[in-house]
Amino acid sequence: MRTGVRSRWDKAVLVCAKCSKKLDDGFDDGGKPLAKALRKHLKLKNGPKSAAGVVEVKCLDVCPKGAVVVVDSARPNDWLLVRPGDDLDAVAERLGLAGK
Fold first, then answer.
1. What span, in angstroms and rounded, lies between the C-alpha atoms of 68 and 19?
2. What is the rounded CA–CA span in Å between residue 34 and residue 19?
3. Which among 57, 50, 70, 54 is positioned nearest to 9, based on CA atoms?
4. Contact indicator for 46, 87 with CB cutoff of 8 Å
5. How many other β-carbons are positioned within 10 Å of the β-carbon of residue 72?
6. Which of 54, 96, 98, 99 has the fewest CB neighbours in a 10 Å radius?
7. Cβ-proximal residues to 33 (8 Å cutoff; 6+ apart), any chain
8. Range 50-55 average pLDDT
9. Whole-structure pTM value
10. How much is the pLDDT for 44?
11. Displacement of CA 19 from its chain's centroid (Å)
């Protein structure tokens, strides 16, 4: 039986699913949740073979109005609030995902 799984991630980002769900317009052109929009924008695969992980978590208990809470695993003390219409390139840059 396996006791672990290897991944190619060098970065993990947590995105609050509850915040994303509350936003009617969503992100990107199709009104997608932030995690999906970021993965698509950065052309990241799902799962451990991706260069980085953008993972939706149930709730981060911050609940800002009109924004989604995002946590960069490299800087867990500095949470980011992302609003619909924010430039995804700038968001990716701030999260250290640019060029992944």
1. 5
2. 9
3. 50
4. no
5. 18
6. 99
7. 15, 17, 20, 21, 26, 27, 56
8. 94
9. 0.90
10. 93
11. 12
